[in-house]
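Title: Prediction job returns without error message
Component: structure pipeline
Severity: low
Priority: P3
Assignee: unassigned

Description:
Job completed but the reporter wants confirmation the result is attached to the right record. Sequence as submitted:
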Amino acid sequence: MPRNFIKFVLRGVVGAVVDTSVLWILTTFFFHSYFTKYVLSPAISYELGIAVTYIICYFWIWNHRVHNEKSDFIKLFLHYNFVLLIFIVIKLGLLAVIYELFHFHIVICNVLALCFSGIVSFFASEKYIFVKKDKKYREKYCRRIKV
């Protein structure tokens, strides 16, 4: 698990760069009202970050727990996306609280909120999404594939 956590942290850095870059682009060049800047932009940037981090999780971190099939990829993405969409509520709440308390720039508030939601999402990914399959499951699945 420590090795996966280190990989997960690196995945989080990539996700944070994607999330923060998209957020900066949207809030600097496209969105200027309160709703679009503080709700819509972070939601869009977070969803793009989710997609990038899922690909990293599926093909690098927990690749030994997946089946490398289109249906498996989509099914796990839906689970991953659903679980992490729950964290957007946490992230948006933290972002707003941090901004109201400290008046940091939106990008700094976003990074701080991402740190907290990232730690929680590791445990969700480890225990609920990319679950270790027991020996019976692997034998049954492998037998089905070979036929």
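Comment from assignee: result matches the submitted record. The mean pLDDT is 83.
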